[in-house]
Design brief:
This protein is α+β, with helices and mostly antiparallel strands and 189 residues long. It is 42% helix and 13% strand. The strands form 2 sheets. It has a 4-stranded mixed beta sheet, sandwiched between helices. The chain has a 4-stranded antiparallel beta sheet with strand order 3-2-7-8.
């Protein structure tokens, strides 16, 4: 059974536990397209294509015609980075689309504990080291993506970039020591 036919297969038994995010501010901050691209390591063309085809749509604010700005959540950017890694390792877009649909069903705490394994055809979900070992012993897994590591990578990248408060639209200036002009604009506004 491939990921194109069904959700990513579980490496072991039982649903994942926990639904908490360690940083609730992730839900209150949005990121525009160029920031999402930079944090996920993708081009704007990829971002635009994936949004238009429904692969990874911005969950905060979609584009409403010419000149409008999409606004991506932290979680959206984590998924964008996972999609990029899966594509880079040769997983088909059809299988990635199925995996993304499956990932949307999990809470942020669940995602951070998950490892995705793939043999290039099937994407497997593993929530414990035993499940990863079980896949490797069965000869199925060829590469893995520790979602928690991707999560931390995105957090680190976004801490250097600008975001905006979802409810007020106020710009949140990333931790750029040399970005004094942006800080002054933010204080003046």
């Amino acid at each position: 059974m491939t990921a194109g036919d069904s959700p990513p297969q579980r490496g072991g038994a039982g649903p994942l536990q926990g639904d908490g995010d360690t940083d609730p501010s992730h839900d209150r901050i949005g990121y525009r397209g160029p920031t999402a691209c930079s944090a996920a390591g993708i081009t704007y063309r990829q971002l635009d294509y994936w949004a238009r085809t429904g692969l990874v749509e911005p969950s905060i604010r979609p584009a409403y015609g010419s000149g409008s700005q999409r606004l991506y959540s932290f979680r959206d950017i984590v998924v964008l980075k996972i999609v990029k890694r899966l594509l880079d390792t040769g997983v088909s877009l059809q299988n990635i689309r199925t995996a993304v649909e499956h990932l949307r069903s999990f809470g942020p705490g669940d995602l951070a504990q998950m490892t995705l394994m793939s043999d290039g055809a099937t994407v497997y979900e593993c929530s414990s080291p035993d499940e990863v070992v079980g896949l490797l012993q069965g000869g199925q897994g060829v590469f893995g993506i520790a979602v928690g590591v991707v999560w931390k990578d995105v957090e680190g990248a976004l801490s250097q970039l600008h975001g905006e408060h979802v409810d007020t639209g106020e710009t949140i200036v990333g931790d750029h020591p040399g970005d004094e002009l942006a800080r002054r604009r933010n204080r003046a506004g």
